[in-house]
Amino acid sequence: MTSPVAPTRVCFQLQVKPELLDEYIRRHTPVWPEMLAEIAAAGRRNYSLFLADGGRLIGYYETDDDEAAQAYLAASEVAAKWEAQMAPFFVGLDGRPDQAATPLTEVFNLADQLDAAQAASSPTTEESSAS
């Protein structure tokens, strides 16, 4: 089922300790099935992690209610266990990685701008009926 409201897009950044990159990748190949289920149950979808040189990690997901998704995972025993095991991989992080990652500000989205451009160029109902 799709939501009538556009999903919230969330992008975040973390820094993986360079000396732990290989182990970090290994731990995500694959992620525990029960953790995957918790992420989905929290309402996160289209979730990806991207790793750049030097350990810069960018994460992205979509959700209908990020506050509810965060609260669900904060209360999850499985997520707490997973995040406790992931915490040592990150530089300068206070708290659980899933709760303390630095969110990034979205400045451009192609679909949103195409929709806005189309709406701006479409005649309104009043203009259409006047013709």
From TrEMBL:
* Example of a GO biological process term: rhamnose catabolic process
What keywords were assigned to this record? Isomerase
Tell me, what is one Gene Ontology molecular-function annotation carried by this entry?
L-rhamnose mutarotase activity
EC number(s)? 5.1.3.32
Q: Which Gene3D superfamilies match?
A: 3.30.70.100
Q: What is this protein called?
A: L-rhamnose mutarotase
Keyword Isomerase included in the entry's annotation: yes
| Enzyme class per UniProt | isomerase
